[in-house]
Design goal:
Blueprint (H helix, E strand, L loop, with lengths): L12 H14 L15 H6 L3 E3 L2 E3 L14 E4 L9 E4 L4 E5 L4 E6 L2 E2 L7 E10 L7 H6 L1 H4 L17 E7 L2 E8 L10 E3 L3 E2 L2 H10 L5 E4 L11
Parallel strand pairs: 4-13, 7-11, 10-12
Antiparallel strand pairs: 1-2, 3-6, 4-5, 5-6, 8-9, 8-13, 9-10
Pathway: Cell wall biogenesis; peptidoglycan biosynthesis
Keywords: Cell shape, Cell wall biogenesis/degradation, Glycosyltransferase, Hydrolase, Peptidoglycan synthesis, Signal, Transferase
Family: Belongs to the YkuD family.
């Protein structure tokens, strides 16, 4: 005699609906459609791409990580200073090269930490490509561990903190020891980190160095003048 086949007990309709509902909740939610990261403007990528300069190769800057305001650009700028003047606004973290027609080339900069700022007017008495660097005695005194090993100087090159170019600020024929220069630390642009100098991306200091002649005037604004020129 063939044994009777066991049959699964039938679930009440309410229990069946509950099982179906729980199964639906346990399903993995569909992944949202992927969103592509916007591609960098090709012109900016070209502006800040890797470049060969003499015996040195300057690494490219990832423009997708740059604050757009720090990108080199022409802006409307009202000032009483003549074209060719460099106006540094350390409080807004910008450097302006005054141009004709109420315009200026604007560069994002890194500036001095509190207590080491330069303010006033000076002249560019010297221009240098891949300059050497010697820390000042005050720098060594403030931070002997960092600057002491370089007391005798460091030759120019990609590892030099002055970067690819330097503009030397003089007053009355005397070196102020302040510089406008490049940097091998691009993440410091827009910040207050230096020992008194004004630093630009290497790509930008090369551009500025090319545009300004020896003898050009530099004006470093005080806090009361900050942000008043750009329209």
């Amino acid at each position: 005699m063939t044994p009777a086949r066991a049959t699964a007990p039938r679930l009440p309709l309410t229990a069946l609906l509950l099982v179906i509902g729980l199964s639906a909740c346990a399903q993995t939610a569909a992944e949202p459609p992927s969103i592509e990261t916007p591609k960098a403007d090709p012109s900016l990528a070209s502006m800040y791409g890797a470049i060969r300069d003499g015996d040195e190769t300057i690494p490219g800057v990832d423009v997708s990580k740059m604050d757009p305001k720090n990108v080199r650009q022409v802006v409307d700028y009202k000032t009483g200073y003549p074209p060719g003047t460099i106006v540094v606004d350390p409080h807004s973290r910008f450097l302006y090269l005054v141009m004709k027609g109420g315009k200026a080339m604007r560069y994002g900069v890194g500036v001095a930490k509190a207590g080491t700022e330069f303010e006033g007017e000076a002249d560019i008495a010297r221009k240098a490509r891949w300059p050497g660097w010697v820390p000042t005695q005050n720098m060594i005194k403030r931070n002997p561990e960092r600057y002491g090993p370089f007391a005798s100087g460091l030759e120019g090159g990609i590892m030099n903190p002055l970067g690819a170019r330097a503009l030397y600020l003089y007053q009355g024929g005397k070196d102020t020891l302040y510089r406008i220069h490049g940097t091998n630390e691009p993440w410091t642009i827009g910040k207050s980190v230096s020992s008194g100098c004004i630093r630009l991306l290497n790509h930008d200091i090369i551009d500025l160095h090319r545009r300004v002649p020896k003898g050009a005037k530099v004006v470093v604004l005080g806090p009361e003048q900050s942000g008043k020129g750009e329209v």
